[in-house]
Amino acid sequence: MSELETGPGAELPVPLPDLPVVEEMQLGIVTRFADVKLQKAQGKPAVYCSVLMPKEILLAMDVATVYSDMLGAYASIMGMSEKYCQAAEEAGLSRDVCAVHRCTVGVANAAQRDDFFEMAFAVPDLVIGSNYPCMSESKSFLQVVDRYKTPYYFLDAPINQWGQDVPQHVIDYYVLQLQGMIDFLVAHGHTFDLDRLKEEVAFTKRLNTLLQEVDLYKRAVPTPLRAYDNVIATTAPIALSKEARTLAIFERYRDELKARVARGFGVVPEEKLRLMWVGMPPLCDFKLLNYPEAHGAVVAKSMLEFLTGFTLDPALMDPDKPLESIARAQLVSPANPLYKSVIDYLVNATRDYRIDGVISVVKRSCGFLPGMQRLTKEAILEATGVPSLVFDMDGVDVREYDPAATKANLDAFIETLLARKKRGA
């Protein structure tokens, strides 16, 4: 775990994983950062893009990928958000721009980086931008294009106005966008093999099926999985290196959870409340995710999970139609606006996970989430009777994070829920 230390003998800015397989995942995610520079040294063009870009295409083409928003997230996790946000602001980004993207741009543009980011960041040869899933994503990549004068491709993802039944002409349009991304990569030195892409889509289908099993065990009462472990395991499918991203590691994840459920293990001695976290997780204070455990409460569910794309029905993935499958899966994901798909997902999760209360945090610099949180609160209350706490918390830019106020909000909400449960409400 030394890669995550902030100095000799320093306390980790995050909790240690509780499940052995999740600790392996965390190490695998960190190791993937270093892989990009190794690939670049071998002559492969480094591509800078969002972690939400279609992973099947990138893996099939063996792309050395600098995941932009992962850099920004880790800058906050490692206690460096102030430094890198300020660097981005000095380069011209407003403080009103998403803090994750300010951290990302700060890391990418910095003349001198901390040791971890010197290891993790490779100067890009190509850039792929997108409007998926938000406006900040559609603009921040241009800062890197300007800094390094790289060729770039913009992947235009239509917003989902239709729910699960996206019209064929919209799917066809996005397939053309994906094909354009492939053509761009081929034009700049990468190789495309349709059979390899079919293999990656087939892998995603198998992995989605496996993670549906995992989800059933995660719903168990008492919850067998700590909130921090859940975040790492949720990120692993999109952030592990190709070598580490195997079915075997996720089968072990399933089996470790299954064993815990079988023996009635819970992450707190007496589970009194089950909570769901809506909004950006507290990257600059990751230990906060486990904070409710002091009250006998657990964060059993997080909306972060749908961003990985692994909440989707495996039936969406057809290896014989790889680009159409990728297009359809991305477009119907709750990560793709409009709000109805997100709200439906969270209402269903409230029921499935037997949630007692929803923690809904508003990040001021986010242009996507705050607008739907009041609607989500009302929908969950109407459909399930479960109350929500909505409060401001920028868990990325440490300059705007107030730990005392945040914990006070959580304490008061949990105490209210406990009193409500005691009354039998």
Quick recap:
With 425 residues, the protein is α/β, with parallel strands linked by helices.
Notes on the protein architecture:
The chain has 15 helices and 8 strands. It has 425 residues and is an alpha/beta fold. It has a domain at 13-21 and 31-192: Rossmann fold, CATH 3.40.50. A 4-stranded parallel sheet has the order 2-1-3-4, sandwiched between helices. A 4-stranded parallel sheet has the order 6-5-7-8, sandwiched between helices. Helix 1 (20-41) packs parallel to helix 10 (227-239) and helix 4 (81-90) packs across helix 5. The model is unreliable at 1-11 (pLDDT under 50).
The CATH topology annotation of the domain at 13-21 and 31-192 reads as Rossmann fold
Q: Architecture of the domain at 13-21 and 31-192, according to CATH?
A: 3-Layer(aba) Sandwich
Distance between the termini: 45 Å
**Beta-strand proportion:** 5-15%
- So what's the overall shape? globular
**Runs with pLDDT <50, length 5+?**
1-11
Main beta sheet strand tally, sense and closure: 4 strands, parallel
| Structural class category | alpha/beta
Oligomer: single chain
Q: Which series of helices and strands comes N to C?
A: HEHEHHHHEHEHHHHEEHHEHEH
Q: What level of helicity do the residues show?
A: 40-55%
- Strand tally: 8
How confident is the prediction overall: mean pLDDT? 91
Integer-rounded radius of gyration: 21 Å
Strand order of the largest sheet: 2-1-3-4
CATH class of the domain at 13-21 and 31-192: Alpha Beta
What is the helix tally?
15
